[in-house]
Each structure stands twice: as structure tokens, then as C-alpha cells.
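INFO  loader      accepted 1 record
INFO  loader      residues=342
INFO  predictor   begin
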Amino acid sequence: MATMSEKKKRKRESEHRVFNTEWTNKYLYTVSKDKILCLVCRETLAIPKEYNLRRHFEIKHPNLAKLNPNEKIIKAASLVKNLSGEHQIFKKVSTEKDTVTKVSFQISKEIAAAGKCFTEGEFLKKCMLIVVSELCPEKRGIFENVSLSRMTVQRRIADISTNLGDQLKQRVSEFCFYSLAMDESTDLKDTAQLLIFIRGIDKNFEITEELVGMCSMMGRTTGKEISSEVIKCMNDKLGVDFTNVVAICTDGAPAMCGKNVGAVTLLEEFIGRQITKHHCIIHQQVLCSKVLKFEPVMSVVVSTVNLIHSRGLKHRTFRAFLEGEDAKCSNLIYHTEVRWLS
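INFO  predictor   done
INFO  writer      dumping C-alpha cells
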């Protein structure tokens, strides 16, 4: 049973007290960010009660309490104007700070997209300061606040990568169905790199296609290792299972499409059902060229490409020719023989 003290105890919210605007001119108080604020000493009161405001005003500011009503109105207007100016200054500083941070992220993104070194940010900032000093020196202070040091650019790029990963994870969670594409190759240091792409569609028929990840495989590259990397990548980076996967595209290598221990076969065993298997279109084109017996054409093309690449003058002249013609490709691509075919 509740005691008498508990019954008499009242909560602040239950009183439903509101601030009276007339108190601003009488006691030099106002409401700022849901707080009852004294315009003179910046002290706040919890409850908007006139007795509390009058007591604070007469005890803490006796000189102002002696003013007549007209003088109090003038004083209150001046203090309110000063408070508003302070808020505008803080808002301006906060806006400039957000803008400077946004610019830092945008420049870091361009550095990453161009594959430049992280230290390029300091060089870019130096160039920006030279430009702003000549064109608008009054803005130099804002440009100096743009942080583009090596460590800052590194953090910005890491944050952008994390954010993009979170966006992709969110989009993938909305997929109704999706397919995967896998390709395994070796880099210049003979390290096997497994690329995994995902392409899906949501309930609004919006299609998303992105690179899920590039997995470095230091050991063997059998179907068992490839399937394990695919499962690990999908679970760790996207947090999705294989319930909605409908197709897988590969390059046709035995490690990918082997009947017994291929990566796709092992994935089908892991999922518990069959999956539609597609062949890489590039390999299909090579297969088509072999079936149509394009050897006379390909031999001439390969020998011509090798001739141009083997002579520096011819190579430079040919690139200048491509630039003059506004060609889509700016250089010749070496012909690579495809090893595995369906």
C-alpha cells in the first residue's frame, strides 16, 4: 500500500507548465532548446514557474530588477538579439565544419578511384591553397581546414569502403533472386585471386550488380578451396545464405565446373539443390571463333598486334592515330589464349 509521501509526490510532466512570453520582459528569461534560460547569466531552470524566475531575477540581478518596465523591454530585446547572434555563429561554424569534412571525403574518393597514392592529398591541398590565395584570399582559412594528410585520406577511404559495403549488404538483403559470377586468375606475383560478383533483383524489379570481393588464395585452387572461399565471402561480407541463388556463371575450368569435385558441384551439394550454370561470354566467343575456324584471321591479327608492340616508333604512332580518331580504346590489347572451354 502506498504511503502518504508517495501519494503527494508529483512528477514534473504531470503539472503541464508552459513558459509565459511576458516573463521575457519582466524577468529577462527565454526558452532556448526546450530549456528556461536566463538571458543575463545563462542559468537554466527546470520548471517554468513564475515564482522561481522572479526569485532568481531579484536575488542574482538586483540592479536589473530596479529598472522600469520600458527599460526592461529594451534590455530584454538587446539580450535576445545577442543570444540569437551566438546561435548563428555556432550554426555557421558547424555548417562550415560539415562542408569541410564532406570535401575531404570527396577528394579522398577521387584519389582512391584514380589509384593514386594517399600522399597525393597533401599535394592537392597545396595546389588549392595557391589557387585560393590568388582568386579569393578571404576564403583561405576555410581551405586550410580541409584535412588531406596521408592518414586522413586513408581513414576516409576506409570509411567510404565500409559504407559502400553496408549499402551493398542492405541491397542484397532485399533481393528476391540473385546469381553469382566467379573467376579465378593469378596476379603478377603468382597469387591466385578469386573474384566474386553478384547480380540480383528486388521486389521493385530493380537490378543491382556489384563486386562482392576479391579473395587471395595462397594455397591450392581446387574446387573445394574455391567453394569454401565463396561460402565464407557470402557469409562474412553480405551475411546472406544461398536460399535465393538461381544461377552461377564461371569460366568453364575443371576446378569450377568439374562433375565430381568442381566448385559449382560442391556448392550445389552445400545448398541441397541444382543451380543453373552459365558459361562466361568471353570464353563462348573464343569457342565460337574456334568452331568457325577463324585461324587465318586470328593469325594475321595477332602478328599485326605483335609487330606494332615490338616497335616503339610504330606503337607511339598508332596510339597517336587512335587519339586523333577519338577511338574508344587508346591502345592495343594483347591477345590471350583461353585455356579452358566447355
